[in-house]
Amino acid sequence: MENMFSLAGKVAIVTGGNGGIGKGIARGFAGMGANLVIAARNQQKTADAEREIKEEFGVHVLGLKIDVTKEEQIKRMVDQTLEKFGRIDILVNNAGTNIRKMPQEYQASEWDAVLNANLRSAFLCSQAVYFAMKKAGGGKIINIGSMTSIFGGAKLAPYGTSKGGIVQLARSLAAAWAPDNIQVNAILPGWIDTDLTRQARIDLAGLDETVKSRTPVGRWGDPQDLAGTAVFLASRASDFVTGVALPVDGGFSIALM
Ligand SMILES: NC(=O)c1ccc[n+]([C@@H]2O[C@H](COP(=O)([O-])OP(=O)(O)OC[C@H]3O[C@@H](n4cnc5c(N)ncnc54)[C@H](OP(=O)(O)O)[C@@H]3O)[C@@H](O)[C@H]2O)c1
After folding, report:
1. Is the CB of 230 under 6 A from ligand 1?
2. Lower CB density within 10 Å: C or N end of the chain?
3. Are strands 182-189 and 139-144 parallel, antiparallel or unpaired?
4. Residue 257 is assigned to a structural domain of this protein
């Protein structure tokens, strides 16, 4: 029987794919045979990820310097992907950032920075790949949400708003593009050990102990923990799954304490 999780011959764009969760997902896709576009701002990190994945998995990888808050750069990302590979099958809207403050302390520019990087970018990237996916007869879009798609937090007003929004965005795009055979879903990671949360561990005293005691499996997630779910949502195995928000959280979202 053909492997229903195979991504051989597919082309996947992963925004923020040069580190953390994005790189974990990119590695998962490469392991199933997909060629990749890694789009992020830090060129050195992108070049390192590109080399690592090419060497380990032998797939084609195109690293692009892209700021997903800039619409013209998103268009360039799509143009360059089509120029190199001629198709786009999978988009992962993973690039994201956070600014932690009490709600009364934010500048409007800080609100905009978080919403633009986390939510507006996901809409614009999805819009930008739509016609290529439609032309190819279908596609898969995966939005990276968060536990803050479900829970609130004192210092999370713009971040939580963006992560709640990205789930609703997935549902709206899923409904709109189902007739085009494009499935749009969200993954909600629990606490994953990355640069983003290493900063959180500095900002928030006691976070390490809290995460371990509050997460039923008793540990932080690793970026690679997201790979299996992302492969499922990027593959033929999920063709009848659309508009869902799937927690990958070691049980964080189902445990009362
Ligand atoms: N770690 C967790 O526990 C956790 C939990 C839930 C959700 N998430 C979400 O998972 C996603 C990845 O986060 P992470 O934890 O892996 O953090 P990370 O290691 O800091 O990764 C963030 C990635 O986004 C890229 N990025 C940020 N702003 C960008 C922009 N304007 N344009 C293009 N790329 C941009 C970064 O690359 P450059 O700096 O090179 O641009 C980096 O590759 C985010 O959406 C985050 O909200 C993380």
Report:
1. no
2. N
3. parallel
4. no
Q: Per the residue annotation, which of 29, 85, 130, 159 is the catalytic one?
A: 159
Closest ligand 1 atom number to CA of residue 220: 3
Q: Is 170 within a domain?
A: yes
Instruction: Provide the CATH number for the domain around residue 119.
Output: 3.40.50.720
**Is the Cβ atom of 194 under 6 angstroms away from ligand 1?**
yes
User: In angstroms, what is the span from residue 179 Cα to ligand 1's centroid?
Assistant: 31
For residue 106, indicate whether it is catalytic. Answer: no
> Which helix H or strand E contains 208, and what residues bound it?
helix 207-214
Tell me how far apart the alpha carbons of residues 66 and 237 are, in angstroms, rounded to a whole number.
30
**153 located within any domain:** yes
Describe the strand order of the beta sheet including 182-189 as a list of residue ranges. 61-65, 35-40, 11-15, 90-93, 139-144, 182-189, 245-248
Examine residue 22 and state whether it is found in any structural domain, yes or no.
yes
Q: What is the pLDDT of residues 22-43, one digit of tens each?
A: 999 999 999 999 999 999 999 9
Range of the domain at 44: 11-247
Secondary structure class of 220 (helix, strand, coil):
coil
Q: Hey, what amino acid is at 240?
A: F
Whether 97 is in the pocket of ligand 1, judged by its Cβ within 6 Å, is yes
Tens of pLDDT, residue by residue over 56-76, are: 999 999 999 999 999 999 999
User: Percentage of the chain surpassing pLDDT 90?
Assistant: 95
Q: pLDDT tens digits for 185-207?
A: 999 999 999 998 998 888 888 99
Instruction: With a cut of 70, say whether residue 143 has pLDDT above it.
Output: yes
Q: What is the mean pLDDT of the chain?
A: 97
